[in-house]
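User: I'm writing a short report section on ligand binding and want a predicted complex to refer to. Could you take this sequence and pyridoxal-5'-phosphate and write out the structure as tokens? A short remark afterwards would be nice.
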Amino acid sequence: MTTALPSHTTPEVRSLLADALLHELSHGLGGPYHVLFPERFDANAAAFREVFAEAGVDGRVYYAKKANKAAVYAGRAAVAGLGVDVASHGELREALAAGVRGADLVVTGPAKTDALLRVAVLQGALIAVDALDELDRLIAMSHQLARTARVLLRRLPPEQPHSRFGLDDGELASALTRCVEGPVDMEGFSFHLSGYDVRQRADLAVELVHLCGRARELGLRADRVSVGGGFAVDYVAAEDWRRFEESRRPEHFHAGKSFGGFYPYHSPVAGADALRTMLAATPAGEHTSLAALLRAAGVTLLVEPGRALLDQAGFTVFRVQGVKERDGYAVLTVDGSSLSLSEQWFDSEFLPDPVLVPAGSRPVADAGPYPACVGAATCLESDMLTWRKIPFPLRPAVGDLLVYLNTAGYQMDSNESPFHELPLPPKVVVEQSASAQSSPFRWRLDRHPA
Ligand SMILES: *Cc1c(COP(=O)(O)O)cnc(C)c1O
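Assistant: Sure. The structure tokens for the complex follow:
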């Protein structure tokens, strides 16, 4: 029997799971939907800022917009005075429309189009330059517009030499020379590492602090360093994760399916705590903490968390449309597709157990758990939301809801398409109700065009 992997929850999640609103929305919207908790986004952002304040480090938080397309988070970022990390013209437009000021944007992504660079320069956004030819186009653009471009130079991480992003040592040297000549305000350096290694980030951050020193000798401003995102999210408890990993076998999955690997769904250090750990770390070859080194150098630290700001800031609701018995387990079919659970599209699976919310009270049977996998309402054999036979405490029935928790970071919408003419799941913004009405929640649709 497969082990349970219950997701961490929050008080608002638990209280909404017990509220009639979930079934009502499923009925009213007529299909799957995503729930967004903007208050949790605010709290996550505040935790990051608190870490900077505690450590006495001048820091800035940029929300990496690609983690979710909803308008509400960018709006909350604007109100809270966070920056936003955008990587396309569309993301930039959405961020501006949400009220984020141009100067609070950082534009990342490789080989940015001229259209994107133009708007970025006109808006006074910070531009993370990824390549020399991009820098040349940016300088030409700045001349043409008679504006100074604000630039970060993106460093190719020496630990990830095969990364297609960033400038190597030689390219950085040329880039600095061009920055000295061009109408460019060279504000510093950036990197974005894959993975979640805090130590690696501290080491590379201090290398960029030293690079700032070199750039200043050339007369450049160079007073900030961006360490990108990659702050882990902790989805499930350590013990459950350990048990899952130790006991994992192909027969725990429908059709004996096996996967290349899984996201580390348990992370002992996650979110703002990962930033705290990074700032407290003594980087390789140094004698003091990263925080002290930043202070001494007068360098501002920029972070661009996506997933971590969205921790517990949303979940995804499907309705069970069919229950089919197989040998020792059930195959559920829900009213949506795995396109609303993006992990499946990386030859992997979103592992935290979905929560079964029964349609009505049912006699609690004696012999649970009831293992079941979860398939989509499409004609593809491979379109499974969950291959794993989840040990449900109750026998799932048609009309029950299946709630995948903590999906706001990347899971919800990065791969959604109206495949099979299934409508895209709408996003429902849920907030605590201020007045003491009958329901403790208020809801509205996110205004982002689905
Ligand atoms: C994707 C990305 C981020 C966000 O990464 P998370 O893992 O969601 O924190 C930040 N910065 C850049 C440049 C990115 O490409």
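A remark for your report: The longest strand covers residues 314-325. The two ends are 39 Å apart (CA to CA).
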